[in-house]
């Protein structure tokens, strides 16, 4: 398990003065990067062996949103390798040690030169210590909607959307999808399924699916094939 401590910054807040869902994703991505770097199987190692971990799926469950200046602990650990897939949990704890955000993620290891999935190297398998998966309700990976969605105006991928792999960063799709949430919709769970990588100047056509307590956004190419599908579920009122 890898953990690091932080304090919620003003720049990480949403309009309700709480840590935003996009900032939560950023924290978790940073945590997994720190973990891999510490183990010696990070970015430079992956470049050397010609491989790349690509996000395939997120499920993030939010019990409570951290507030401005709150001290938090962010943690992560892998719990399974299956073929070319890696399964990793994340969590966020408050100062009392209570888990206030929990997440599951699935990653695909790609052979960059061959352009196809690849199994982890022996160095990766030995570096990552597998642990027992978090206690949470695990949703299916596939995100489906029962009714037709509403198409919204298309837009183009800009440089600000890209990461070091020159693809749209997985957190950016969540930023994009949030624009289609109804006013006052409080997110209790977010799922994201990643289908293909969008590149600079690609056209993205959003299609929104709105149900009573569930909103989905399919971010598609011009042919209607999704780059990513994001689902938000309304937080239960307690």
Automatic annotation (TrEMBL):
Gene Ontology MF term list: acyl carrier activity; fatty acyl-[ACP] hydrolase activity
Pfam families, per database record: Acyl-ACP_TE
Gene3D superfamilies, sorted: Hotdog Thioesterase
Keywords: Transit peptide
The Acyl-ACP thioesterase N-terminal hotdog domain, residue ranges: 4-128
The keyword DNA damage is annotated on this UniProt entry: no
InterPro entries hit by this protein: Acyl-ACP_thioesterase_NHD, FATA/B, HotDog_dom_sf
Similarity comment text for this entry: Belongs to the acyl-ACP thioesterase family.
Cited PANTHER family: OLEOYL-ACYL CARRIER PROTEIN THIOESTERASE 1, CHLOROPLASTIC
Protein name stated in the entry: Acyl-[acyl-carrier-protein] thioesterase
Organism placement in taxonomy: Bacteria, Bacillati, Bacillota, Clostridia, Lachnospirales
């Amino acid at each position: 398990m890898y953990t690091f401590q932080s304090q919620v910054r003003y720049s990480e807040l949403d309009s309700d003065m709480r840590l935003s869902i996009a900032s939560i994703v950023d924290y978790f991505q940073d945590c997994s990067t720190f973990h891999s770097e510490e183990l010696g199987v990070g970015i430079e190692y992956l470049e050397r062996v010609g491989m790349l971990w690509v996000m395939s799926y997120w499920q993030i469950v939010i019990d409570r949103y951290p507030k401005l200046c709150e001290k938090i602990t962010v943690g992560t650990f892998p719990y399974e390798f299956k073929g070319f897939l890696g399964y990793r949990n994340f969590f966020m704890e408050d100062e009392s040690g209570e888990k206030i955000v929990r997440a599951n993620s699935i990653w695909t290891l790609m052979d960059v030169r061959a352009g196809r999935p690849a199994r982890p190297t022996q160095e990766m398998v030995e570096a990552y210590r597998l642990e027992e998966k978090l206690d949470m309700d695990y949703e299916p990976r596939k995100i489906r909607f029962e009714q037709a969605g509403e198409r919204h105006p298309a837009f183009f991928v800009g440089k600000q959307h890209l990461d070091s792999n020159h693809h749209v960063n997985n957190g950016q799709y969540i930023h994009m999808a949030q624009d289609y949430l109804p006013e006052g919709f409080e997110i209790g769970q977010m799922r994201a399924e990643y289908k293909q990588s969008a590149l600079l100047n690609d056209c993205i056509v959003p299609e929104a699916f709105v149900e009573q307590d569930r909103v989905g956004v399919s971010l598609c190419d011009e042919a209607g094939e999704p780059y990513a599908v994001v689902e938000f579920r309304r937080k239960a009122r307690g």
